[in-house]
Structure formats: C-alpha cells, structure tokens
Amino acid sequence: MATKANDRQVGGYHYKGSDYQHWDFANDIKMLYLPGVASKYVARWRKKNGVEDLEKAVHYLDKCIEVQINVLPSVNRYAFFWRFAIANNLNMRDAWVIWLIMEGCWDTAREGVKGLLATTELDALEAS
C-alpha cells in the first residue's frame, strides 16, 4: 500500500513532528504560489536553512509587490492559520509575518522578515 505524501519527507526533518504541514495550510486557505512559498520559508527558517530562507522569503515578497498579487479571501483562513502556528510551534514573530503574508500585506511582511534577518545578524555578532 502506498504511503500518503505527509507520511514521508524527502530531505531533512524540518516538517517532522507536525500533524499540520505548511502545504496543508496553504492548500486549505487557497494561498497563491508566490505568497505560499514566501510563507513556507518563514515557517521553516529556524529548522532548515536559517538566514538563506529569510532572504528567499524577502525575494518572493519582492515579487508579490512587483506583480501586485491580490489575496483570495478564504472563509476559514484564521482557524487554519492558528492550527498551523500551534501545530508547528511557531514563535510569535514568525507567526506574525506569516499572518501578514496570508493577509496580503506585502510591504509590512517584507519589513517583518527584514526584522528577523536583523535579529539573526545581531545574535551572530553577540555569539562571536
């Protein structure tokens, strides 16, 4: 019998331990591709590629701004958002940025990611 896609992961463990993965969240709220990828990078940056994932999120948000993506409203997106944030143990800053992406607040979301990058850079300086 074939396993379900959520029962396996190709490369790494950054989605393990969650019963509600990012692709389920993005699908449930009918998130478009560009914001979906941006929010994926914010959701996983602490568990996978760190600063590089945040830089990729900024890049995708730049494209959202450039092409003026409009968010498609989803009736239950708030319940799905909280389910995702809790299931993935997101801290409040990361969750807030994903919320802004979900809401289509591209400039503010971009600044939020830049704030995460600045905090990461400060942490690296303090550690050295």
Number of domains: 1
Average pLDDT confidence is 87
* H/I helix tally: 6
Structural class by helix and strand composition: mainly alpha
Measure the end-to-end span. Answer: 51 Å
Please state the overall shape, judged from the principal axes of the Cα atoms: globular
- Would you identify the regions where 5 or more consecutive residues have pLDDT less than 50? none
* DSSP E strands, number: 0
Give me the strand/helix succession. Answer: HHHHHH
Sheet-strand content, in percent, reads: under 5%
Oligomer: single chain
Helicity level? 55-70%
Q: What does the radius of gyration come to?
A: 15 Å
Largest sheet: none
Index terms:
128 residues, globular, mainly alpha
Describe the structure.
The protein has one domain (20-127). It contains six helices and no strands. It has helices spanning 22-28, 33-44, 51-67, 77-87, 92-103, 106-127. Helix 2 runs antiparallel to helix 3 (51-67).
List the helices and strands and how they pair.
Layout: H1 22-28, H2 33-44, H3 51-67, H4 77-87, H5 92-103, H6 106-127
Helix pairs in contact: 2-3, 2-5, 3-6, 5-6
Outline of the structure:
The chain is an all-alpha fold and 128 residues long.
